Each structure stands twice: as C-alpha cells, then as structure tokens.
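REVIEWER CHECKLIST
Item 1: Sequence provided? yes
Item 2: Single chain? yes
Item 3: Sequence as submitted:
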Amino acid sequence: MSHQIKLTRYISNFVDQLYRSGVRNVVISPGSRSTPLALTFAEYKKFDLWVDIDERSASYFALGMAKKQKEAVVLVCTSGSAAANYFPAVIEAYYSRIPLIVLTADRPHELRDVGAPQAIDQIKLYGDYVKWFHEMAVPSDIPKMLTYVRNQADRAVRTAIMPNSGVVHLNFPIQEPLLPDFSISGLWGHNSPRIVPQMNYQLDETTLTEILTLITDKKRGLLVCGPDNTEGITEAVNHLAENWNLPILADPLSPLRNGSHSKTHIIECYDAILKMPEVRKQVKIDFIIRVGAMPISKAYLQLLQENTDMEHFVIEAVEGHREPVGLKTHFIYGDPVKILAQLANVSLYYDPSYLKAWQNWNDETKQILSEINQEELTEGHTVLGIQSVIPKDQIFFVGNSMPIRDVDSFWFCHERAIEVFANRGTNGIDGIVSTAVGMSATGKHTTLLIGDISFLHSMNGLLLARNYNLSLTIVLVNNDGGGIFSFLPQAKQQSPYYELLFGTSQSMDMEKLAKAFDINYHCPKNWQDYLDSLAQSYEEGGLSIIEVQTDRNENVLWHQTKWNKVGQKLLGLMQKNENVL
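Item 4: Structure as written out by the authors:
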C-alpha cells in the first residue's frame, strides 16, 4: 500500500470523526507540512473554514468563536515557530476554560534534532497549559490504526469540552509526499455512534448540612457572580437571592446585568460603592457565596482582604482553585446551577433592611455615575454611550486595562439581551482585536471597546475581519499611551522615565490605519456626535472604527471626582443605617 493512500485514509478518518464528534469550525494558518490536514478539512466540505496568515491572530480568533459558541474549535498550523505563536492564546484558553483543539503538523521523527529546516521540539510544546497532549502515530490505514485515529479525534473533542473545558494538543508527524489522494473509494471510512455521558454533580446531604450550619445564624451575606457563562446561572442565582433575601454583586462578565429577568436583588455598582476605604470599613460581611471566576473589581478584592474572618464559599464545576486572596475558603465542587437550586430549597430568610441598604447605595451610586455633560466625551462616556445605543441580541467585547474597568463601573442593568465578553484568563492585551473578530464570525454584530495600545498590539485581526466581510464596531479609546498606568503609583512619582516606560505614546494616525484596512472611520467630538456615530455603525453594519480621543491626566481626575462624590454620598447614607451594617 502506497504512502499516499495510507496518509489519505488516516487523515480523512480523523477529520470525519472530528465532525461526527461535534466540531464545526476549523481555523487554518497556511503552511507546507500541514498540507494533508488543511486539504482534507477543505475536501470534507462540512466545516466552516477560516484562513488566517498570522498564527497568533488565528488562535485568538478561534478562541473568540469557541468562547461565544461554547464548543471546541480546531486550529491547524505547520511545523516550527508557527505552533509557538499559538502559545499566548493557549494560555488564555487554559485560564478562561475555553475548548480549543490544536493540530500541529510536524517533521517525521527521523528529521527531528538533526538540523532539518522548520523543525523545533513540538512535544508537549504548551506544557501544563493543555488538558491532554498526544503525539499521533505515523499514518497507517490498517483497520486497527483507523480505529485508533478515530478514537483520538473523539477523545480530543470530549476532553476539550468536558468540564473544565480547555486545550487539547495533537502533534502529527507527517512524511513526504504531502498531497492526499481524494479519488480513493470509501474515503471517509465508517463510524458508529458514540455515547455521550451526562454529568450530575450535586451536593450530598452531609455537605449541604455542613454549609447551612456555618451560615444559618449569620446576618449579613452576599451572593457574588463573577465571570460565568454557565447555562441557567442567571435564574439559579436570582432564585437563591429571592428565597434568602440577599443582594447579588454581579460582575459585568456575568449574564446577570443584561436581559429581561428580575434585577431587584442585583447590585451592579458595587465596584464604585466599595472604592473608598472609609466606605468599606462600614461594610461588614458575615459570609459570601460565589459562583464564577474572581470578579474584576479591585475594590471587591480589597473588601475580602479586610474581612478575613467571614465564611467564604466558592462553587466550582468539577475542579479548580480560583481564590487569589488567600482566605480560608470552602470549595464546593459540582454543577453550580444544581447546587444553587439545592441551597434555594432551604428555608432561610435574611433581614430585609440589609438588602434595602445595598439597594439604596446602588441607586444613589448609579445616579452619580450616570450624570453626563453633553459637551464632554470621556472614557466612562464610551460605555454609557454603547449601552444606550447598542441593539439587542448583540455582542459586546471589552479590552483589558481601563476599558474593562470602565465597563465594571458604567455598564448598568438593563433589559436588552447583550452578551458581554472579555479575555480575563490572563488579563493581557494580546489578541484582543482577533478575539472580537472571532466573536463576530459567529454571525452577530460585535462591538469592541479597546484602548489604543491594545489596538496597535493586535490589529492584524483586522485583516481577517476585512477578508470575511465581518460586522464589527470598534470603539477605540485613544489617550495616546498606557492610560491605565496613570492610576498607579508610578504615575505619581514624577519619574523622568515614566513616559518612556509606562506612558508609551505612539502618536499614530488612526484614521490612516482605518483607511489602510478600508474601514469606515468616525472621530466624534462630543456626546451627541458619539451617539450618532454608534447609531450609524449599527445601521450600516460592516466594519467601522469610532475613535474617542481623550487626555490621560483629565481622565484620572474625572474618575476620581466621580468616585469621591459616590463615597461622600454613601458615607452619609451609612451613618443613618448603622444598625444594618
């Protein structure tokens, strides 16, 4: 049997099984050694294929699709440094629990470590950041090997998507010649259905009793929902809050702030509420029950650091240890929705005046944060404007550094079903544009809020958006550098090296960049211009950049003025409600 036939049957059975096991999207970066994989995916004709010349951009694009669709996306690249360019996205997927299947073509064993071109050590290239690594066997078409290759494809999909979701890396040693023969009979082989196991992680009675023993006599509790896209989590958290009469601190990356569900118990302004240390000193907490990852808010983290004697519960699916504060924490492992339902069925009801106090603080804070000077256009306004104009059932993707913090402060509860996402696994600025483009590739118009440094760092993603005619509104906050550092201690030291090392002014003409990629461009000068630009971008669809030019120093002063006003207002309210604090 010729090498070409062995290669063709081996790869075609693998590709067929990936589809049967649930894969629908394949992102390919062109290369020679990966030719058999790339051609076979194309020949199969059932996958949605996306081709990106930049592996780093491709990997974040795949991550964006997988994050939105909650299903495994395949990445394919050639041998050598191409695979290394996937590494940042692999790390992000690991910490964000996003299912990716990375297929790296490799030189055959005899060409490794002998100075062959485009050959690096790809064995366990991503270290412990993958759930499973496997070096695939040399292609063969004997029945046992075709069963083997199908088993590996199915295992890859199951491993990637099962809790906790993550990355699988399969390395393919491929000998030349590299061209498959798609004329052979029975190309896609034969496959039998596979059983999909059902997960059922609930609390046993002993554990449930232990939890209740620790909180039944407490007075001041909080439910906290961090970044979490578990199906049914909104209803489950709300149900528990209503039954126990507790406030919910809802992170902007949780689904609780958006949609038609009840928001009576939701405190979305908790980050601004807790900014001032004098306010936090007045807030005493007896216990916290958290689902999802650690919230974005630094003020919330400080609240935990200042209340170390409380009972702290974190509900995790299957496994994990997401607790960066170092508190004595009770980890509860299982299906968060089912565990919350079990807790809600227990008859506990906390003091209504405690919930009412949080609701009053939230209302007063929201009123202050919502105040707008029509002639101004600040970084906080970018969030308020997007929320006021964005149509329902769209995607809002948020860059890191200042944008995500402004979303935490200024994205209020509302009725429209907007999905809010960000790359908070490692909180970096890598691949932000490409991830948002991957989101838009799922068929929904996506709005990206991003800073100028993050934008320049990952603007290769614009090429993919243009090539596939995707629909994306980019709100580009340009403060000519690293605006987040203006809030940190190094900005106050008046060092002669601050601007060089942290300010990092780039002085790029964003309009010219937009023109280079053939993207619609707007540069509003006030609040109404900004709203009009947003509305136009949503009406027209396609690609657009709305550049909001701000000043770093003025931005710091504007935020601090808001937070101080909130803090002073809340301190006055708290003096009247000492008995519930």
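Item 5: Key structural point noted by reviewer: The longest strand covers residues 100-106.
Item 6: Recommendation: ____
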